[in-house]
């Protein structure tokens, strides 16, 4: 800016105001509103997902094929519409992710192979004890087991088994889409990336409390055994499917197993190796650039620990 002074012209530099982050609400008086919108959006998704399971009135148990087929329909509809909730959240908060919605939700090719293999490997290490227990109790040897696993007939039977499709395919895909892919981008600008990673499973866990009432209703289990087995929490989906297959570790059965000592050693070794390898195998650098980090930069949090 030019100004006349003394014997001539001199330049006066007028500092420009610093550009506020696109989600200035996160650092200003609107921070609470933004967080409330994020939490309410996640609660709405969770309630919609669980509510879709009960739009069909039936006196049949949840494992009945007719019930499973009906729930497939409603859950797939809700899951397909769940990205719209992220778009609505973006409009309400004014946060512009700076990347495509699909990329933000985890649908991308960059780093897909380590993302598919390393988390599953880490989960299998954690389940080392149960895997040993399964192999000890299995009547067939390794060669016979591989033949069964690779046989087309076995897969054909699985694809016609409604319970298998629910536990290994539909539930992992739809639950991870709703409770992780959609919720994580909405929570991260409010809570930070680390807390958001641990908050999403809380929504997931609370949403699964309806299983308790169903099991009690049909007297499938006692209250104590239900709570002991309700701890299940391309990488998350595979791990989710694997955990659904394995179920909660049968620790009590391991304590009474004829080969108790090596089995318990396997349990301890699995947990120890899991804790040892958790940080190196989940290093973000292994999985390419993180779209969530771009979102946090847009939200004004450029120093997120997992993004540095």
TrEMBL record:
Biological process according to GO: CAAX-box protein processing
TM region positions: 30-51, 72-92, 112-129, 193-213, 262-281
Reactions performed catalytically: Hydrolyzes the peptide bond -P2-(S-farnesyl or geranylgeranyl)C-P1'-P2'-P3'-COOH where P1' and P2' are amino acids with aliphatic sidechains and P3' is any C-terminal residue
Domain called CAAX prenyl protease 2/Lysostaphin resistance protein A-like: residue spans: 164-246
Lineage: superkingdom: Eukaryota
UniProt-listed Enzyme Commission number(s): 3.4.26.1
Family: Belongs to the peptidase U48 family.
Protein name according to UniProt: CAAX prenyl protease 2
The organism of origin for this protein: Rousettus aegyptiacus (Egyptian fruit bat)
């Amino acid at each position: 800016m030019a100004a006349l002074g003394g014997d001539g012209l001199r330049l006066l530099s007028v500092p420009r105001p610093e550009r506020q982050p696109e989600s200035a609400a996160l650092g200003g008086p609107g921070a609470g509103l933004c967080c409330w919108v994020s939490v309410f959006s996640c609660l709405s998704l969770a309630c919609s997902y669980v509510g879709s399971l009960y739009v069909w009135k039936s006196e049949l148990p949840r494992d009945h094929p007719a019930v499973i087929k009906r729930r497939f329909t409603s859950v797939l509809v809700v899951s397909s519409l769940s990205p719209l909730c992220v778009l609505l959240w973006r409009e309400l908060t004014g946060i512009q992710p700076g990347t495509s919605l699909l990329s933000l939700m985890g649908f991308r090719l960059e780093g897909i192979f380590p993302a598919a293999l390393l988390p599953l490997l880490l989960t299998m290490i954690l389940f080392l004890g149960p895997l040993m227990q399964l192999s000890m109790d299995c009547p067939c040897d390794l060669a016979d087991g591989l033949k069964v696993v690779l046989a087309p007939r076995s897969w054909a039977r699985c694809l016609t088994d409604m319970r298998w499709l629910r536990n290994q395919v539909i539930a992992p895909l739809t639950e991870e889409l709703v409770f992780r892919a959609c919720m994580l981008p909405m929570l991260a600008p409010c809570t930070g990336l680390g807390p958001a990673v641990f908050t999403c499973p809380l929504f997931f866990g609370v949403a699964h409390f309806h299983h308790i009432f169903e099991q009690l209703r049909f007297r499938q289990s006692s209250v104590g055994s239900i709570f002991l087995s309700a701890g299940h929490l391309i990488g998350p989906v595979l791990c989710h499917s694997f955990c659904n297959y394995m179920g909660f570790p049968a620790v009590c059965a391991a304590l009474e197993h004829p080969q108790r000592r090596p089995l318990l050693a396997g349990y301890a070794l699995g947990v120890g190796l899991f804790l040892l390898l958790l940080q190196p195998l989940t290093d973000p650098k292994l999985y390419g650039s993180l779209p969530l980090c771009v979102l946090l930069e847009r939200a004004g949090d450029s120093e997120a620990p997992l993004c540095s």
